Predict the structure.
Amino acid sequence: MRRLSVFGATGSIGVNTLDLIARDGAARGWRVVALTGGRNVALLARQARSLGAELAVTAHAEAYAELKAALAGSGVEAAAGPAALLEAAERPADWVMSAIVGAAGLAPGFRALAQGGTLALANKESLVTAGPLLLAEARRHGATILPVDSEHSAIFQALAGEDIAAVERIVITASGGPFRCWPKERLAAATVAEAVAHPNWAMGRRISIDSATLFNKALELIETREYFGVAPERIEVVVHPQSVVHALVGFADGALMAHLGAPDMRHAIGYALNWPRRRPLPVARLDLVALGQLTFEAPDPERFPALRLAREVMATGGLAGAAFNAAKEVALDAFIDGGLGFPAMAEVVEAALDRLSAGAGLTIAPSGLDDVLEMDHLARATAAAIIRERRQRE
Ligand code: NDP
């Protein structure tokens, strides 16, 4: 019997994962161990009931009573709070989906690796903030990390049976987001609703806004570097508005292997669920003639500075990824709350990195998760201070 847990079950990736589990789970003898969520306790309870999970955990301690009441009579155990999330990660499971959004997803995924099973990694922040630690922990316990980000799943698939030493370049694609054609002057007035309206993918709110700034692609650039161990100068980003080609791998002989598919995360999730086999998935099949054309263009570094910042972060190494992600999360929160304009997000992140690079610590290789979390706190405080100073000046 295969045992599965889903962290971030109530989110966009989580819901898609449970959709696939619900379709196949009974026939294939799967057992759902733990499901976790955040504020959406009602959905979490419904999911846990319908899949007969052993345990449901909300990240918020104060939501325990609500969850317990919603699960009354179901036989599903309820738990709440960050410590309960870590305990859920210790429940024996063969396959764990890591789909909590943000740096909050790092510790539970890290803890799950100790079981030596498979970690399906949607939480890109884990690799950005603590890539070398995460990969070392997986090696230590004989665990497998499978990428779930569509670009990284695409690269992983293009590399199947290939020698990584023969890889000349990796190209990841970006849709360009909703503001791809907006002039620079207009970006200052971009609203949250406009930023969330991704042209091709239906995703959570935070990653949708990160797609509009290209911070999502910036995180993915670092994620590619960390997961595949390819030098930063060999990784390219191209804007591909149709979001049909997810990534390409170029080999020493000049061949370029592309992965194409409809923009539906159930492909990458299903690949990680069924790996190393391929099984039928309920995703649309591409009609190439109807598509007509696939186009590619260079990203504009002036309107979207996030990619340049990611390259600087990779050059710095050490804890720069943790600082970058934390500052980005704070700037994103401020944009969502209406306290920061759209272009100011990148300005805040850049200013925070500048300020942090003046002190010690950014270049130090972390020796454990505590170092990463310490830098995360410091970068959050730094970014928050920069935002306060900006407001005072305005
Ligand atoms: P969502 O915002 O839709 O969902 C996030 C999940 O995390 C929800 O279950 C949420 O609970 C939970 N959560 C939020 N904050 C916390 C916290 N502090 N502690 C514990 N749990 C928390 O995100 P997505 O599903 O879009 O993204 C999840 C991850 O996958 C991200 O790292 C994202 O970058 C990555 N990813 C997403 C893709 C997509 O298509 N959506 C594509 C590729 C990668 P609740 O909603 O109940 O509050």
